[in-house]
Amino acid sequence: MENETEAAAQVINGQVEAHVISAAEDESKLVRDAVRKLPSHAVKELLSMGVCIRCIFRLIGVSECIYSCTSLSTSALSTALEKGMCLEGDMMDNGLRIQEDSNSQHSSEEPELEPNLCRICLGILQFTYHDGKEMLMKSDCANEFALLIAKVVKQEGHQIDSFSLEVSIPSRVMENEQAVWLYMKRKYNSELWFPEQLHSEFISAKDVLKLSITNPLETLLDIKSSLSSAFRIRLTYTDSAVKIKVQKSTEMKECNKRRKTGADDMDTIGGCVAAGTDHSNSCTGEEYVGRSCNGLHNHDFPDLSQFQLEKVSEPCRLTFLCHRNPVYIGGRYLKYSRNVSQTRWIIDDERMGEASVEEIIGSNILPIFHGDNYKFHAAGREDIDVRMLGSGRPFLLEIQNARHVPSEVSIKEMERKVNNLENKLVKVKNVKVVGSQGWNLMREGEAEKQKQYAALVWISRPLEDDDLKTLSSLEDMPILQKTPIRVLHRRSPLEREKIIHWMRIERIAGSSQYCLLHLCTQAGTYVKEFVHGDLGRTHPSVGSLLGCRAEILQLDVTDVKMDCF
Ligand SMILES: [Zn+2]
C-alpha cells in the first residue's frame, strides 16, 4: 500500500514535470505580452493597496487564457511584472520591490510586489491557506496546488471517469473585489487602456481559481472535467477572520462609541465601513476599508484618495471534499418472516422484530460500493407481521458517496449472497444499478399500482357456496375507508375511497369457518380493515358483505403490480 502510494506520487510528479516543460515556454511569452500592455500607474496603485498579481490581472481586464498558465509560479509572475513595469516606468526606482520581510508594515509610499496575503482574495489566488490541522500551506503555482488536491482525491479511493470542480469562497472576497472594481471604474474608466468589458464585469476570484487548477487536475487525475459529472471535488474556503471578529466585536462597539463622541468621527466614509481584524488600526481610524454595504455604488466614494483595503493577517481555512452523487440500486425484495419490519424499527431503545429488510439489504450492498451510507426506499410497505411473497416489492437503495460502482457480475454475486443467508428472512431479485430516474419510476408507479393478497380469514358461521359466489361476483367495487383506529395516532383522520378489483375464496380442507381470501386492491387500501370492517369505519367489508363477523388471522402480499424493476 505504502509503495503504491509512493509510485502514484512519482507518476503524478512526472506528469506535472512533463506538463511544465512543454507549456512553460508558451506561457512565459503569454505573460510577457500581457504584462507589456498593462497600465503601470494602475498596477502600481493596486500593488500598493496590497493586491496580488492574479487579482491585479483580473481587475485590469487581462484575458482569461492567462489564468490557466499553470506552470507559472507566483514568483515568475512577479518577475515578469517587475521587468515589464520597469520597461514602462522604471518603477524599481520608486521603491517597488519584492517583499522579503513578512512582518514589514504596508504603506502607500513603499509598495510591495506581491503581498503576503492579498487584501482582495485573502491569499486564495496565491494558493495560500490553512489546512484542517491549522498548518499554513502555500503553493507556488497552480500545478503544485492541484497536486495536493489530486492526492486527497486519490486517497479517498474514488473510481471516477470525470469530475466537476466546486469552489466556495468567503463573501468578504466578493465584497472586496466589488469595492475595488467600482473604485477602478470610477478612477480609470476615462483612460484609454480601460477595457470595454470591465465596464460591465470582471472575472471573479472563484472563476480564476477554477481556470487555474482545472487543467492540471485533468492531467493529474487523467480524467476530464465536466459540469454534469456525478463526482464533485469541492473546495471550501472559510474566512479565518470571522472568528476573530466575533471576539473583537464587543471591543469594537466600545471603540466606536468613543469615536462618535470624539472630534475624529470618521467610522464611515460613504458606504465604506471602518472595520477590521486589526484592532489598533480600525480603532484609531487610520484604515478605511473598501467593503460594500448592501451594494456599493459609484457615488459612495466621496473621496477616492481615502480608499483602502483591510489588511489580511490570516489566510482562509480550506477543506477539500470529494463527493459522488447518490448511486441508485433498484430491485425487488421478498420477505418470508412475520417478525421482520420493512425499515429499522426501534421503540424506546428496543428493536421491534428480529431484523429489517432495510438493514439486511443495505448492509450487504453498501460494502461492494464502498459508500458512506445508504437510504432505503420501497414502493409502499407491509406490516411487520405480513409476508411479502410472489413477485416481491420494488425497492430502491440510495448509496451515498459510493467510491466504486461494481460490475453486473459482482452485483449478481451480492444478490446470491443475500439469497443464501442462513436465516432466510429476506430474498432479493432483479437487483441492478438504475440511475436517478429509477426514483421517479418507482414513485410514479406506486400511485397507480395494484396489489394482490392472500389472507387467512375466520368467519362466525360455516362458509356456504353462495358466499364464494357473492364475493367473486364483485368487480372493481368501491369502498370507503376512514383512517383505521390502529394508525389514528400517526395518520390524520380522513375518509378515502379505494377500489377492490376482485376477490376469490379458497376453501381449506377440513375446516368450515376458516378460508383463504385472495384479493386484488388499489394501492393504499387497508386490507385488514376491509376484512373485519374496523367497527364500521370501512364499508362495505367482507364481514358486512357476508352478513357475519369476519376476522383476519394472517396476511401475505402475493404481488405488487408495477412496471419498474
Ligand atoms: Zn488576490
Automatic annotation (TrEMBL):
Domain Pus10 N-terminal eukaryotes stretches: 118-241
**Keyword Isomerase, does the record have it?**
yes
Molecular-function annotations in GO: RNA binding; tRNA pseudouridine(55) synthase activity
GO annotations under biological process? tRNA pseudouridine synthesis
Keywords, in A-Z order: Isomerase, tRNA processing
Query: tRNA processing: present as a keyword of the record?
Result: yes
A Pfam family that this protein carries is: Pus10_N_euk
Coiled coil regions in record: none
- Which residues belong to any copy of the Pus10-like C-terminal domain? 328-560
Which E.C. number(s) belong to this protein?
5.4.99.25
Concerning its family, UniProt says: Belongs to the pseudouridine synthase Pus10 family.
| Name of the protein described by the UniProt record | tRNA pseudouridine(55) synthase
What is the scientific name of the source organism?
Actinidia chinensis var. chinensis (Chinese soft-hair kiwi)
The lineage, from the top, is:
Eukaryota, Viridiplantae, Streptophyta, Embryophyta, Tracheophyta
